[in-house]
Amino acid sequence: MPELPEVETVRSALAPVVTGQQVMAVYVGRKDLRWPLPEALDKQLLGCRFAAPTRRGKYVLMPNDNGQVLLIHLGMSGSIRIHEAKPELAKHDHMMLTVEADDGGHRYIVLNDPRRFGWVDLFAAEDMATHKLLKDMGPEPLGNAFSATHIQTVFANRKSPVKNALLDQRLIAGIGNIYACEALFKSGISPRRRAGSITAGRADKLAHAIVTVLRAAIAEGGTSLRDHVQPGGEIGYFVQKLSVYGRDGLPCVICETPIRIIVQSGRSSFYCPSCQR
Ligand SMILES: [Zn+2]
Questions:
Q1: Which of 123, 176, 183, 200 is the most exposed place for a label (fewest CB within 10 A)?
Q2: Domain boundary among 130, 162, 178
Q3: Per the database record, which ranges form the FPG-type domain (predicted)?
Q4: Could you give the C-alpha distances from 249 to 242, 244, 253, 256, 268, in angstroms and in order?
Q5: Does the residue 114 lie in any domain?
């Protein structure tokens, strides 16, 4: 599932392609993904010009000169491809935007989502603060509002495991299963520890680990973009350097204790029972 670094990679791939460019054609193949798509989405987008895309949590936000914002959520399995030549649309390609390009040609932006847990919305920019997916979202972990103090404040008195608290988008935006596991390993905190028991010292390590892990993954995503051989490749799926996620039974990179896997709220948690307390 795309998390903050993957979505950030998609945003940075879209930025040079869409910024300042006009939408020349829109294909919308379905009336719904996870939820119904906006009415006449194709007609609403046709002819608009995009400003620079931004990101909030796991959402790509593409403002346009109609005073609207196109929101793209990749869900569990969604991906974006950017083509220089018009592609044959494949199964699960639900949307394609054709934008003009500086070289006189066009670029084709395709949204593919086999499991359809993703979503696309178009809303007035002034409604950003009240949008149902955005209004309750916690601070960006790479932004100024995020700190050890923030972690301590929002985790205080929580009986749920710290792993579950990290996945709660209302507390911190953008962290999913992979980077929650990695950040907990890096900070030496057990995923089973009660969120409310995180002391100032642990909160400090955790805040630092979250930022480090996310920044490293974003850098990795940037590398994957530069190394892109196939122009039709899915953007935002790259091989991360992971210490615990997906490594159950393999030796811990620090102490060689086998990495353990447990299920918390239906999600797999990977951790070192020796390094993480
Ligand atoms: Zn270990």
A1: 200
A2: 130
A3: 243-277
A4: 14, 10, 12, 10, 14
A5: yes
Distance 206 CA to ligand 1 centre (A): 17
Write out the two tokens for 178. 């992979």
**For residues 262 and 116, what is the distance between their CA atoms, to the nearest angstrom?**
27
Separation of CA 243 and ligand 1 centre (Å): 10
Asked, for residue 32, whether it belongs to a domain, the answer is: yes
pLDDT digits (tens, 9 = 90+) for 187-230: 999 999 999 999 999 999 999 999 999 999 999 887 777 665 44
115 is in an annotated binding site: yes
CA angle, 217 then 84 then 26, to 5° = 95
Instruction: Identify whether the C-beta of residue 74 lies closer than 8 Å to the C-beta of residue 118.
Output: yes
Q: Which residues contact 143 (CB under 8 A, 6 or more apart)?
A: none
Helices (H), the chain: 4-18, 41-45, 148-155, 162-167, 177-187, 200-226
Alpha-helix residue ranges (DSSP H) falling in 2-134: 4-18, 41-45
| C-alpha separations of 82 from 138, 223, 271 in Å | 30, 17, 36
Residue ending a domain, choose from 97, 130, 163: 130
Q: Tell me: do 158 and 104 sit in the same domain.
A: no
Q: Does 106 count as an annotated binding residue?
A: no
- Is 92 a known ligand-binding residue? yes
Dihedral pair phi/psi, residue 234, rounded to 5°: -70, 135
- Domain of 167? 148-271
* Residues forming the active site: 2-3, 58, 267
pLDDT tens digit sequence for 129-155: 999 999 999 999 999 999 999 999 999
Show Cβ contacts of residue 37 under 8 Å, excluding neighbours closer than 6 positions. Answer: 28, 30, 31, 119, 120, 121
Q: What is the CATH number of the domain that holds 212?
A: 1.10.8.50
**Distance from the CA of 142 to the center of ligand 1, in angstroms?**
27
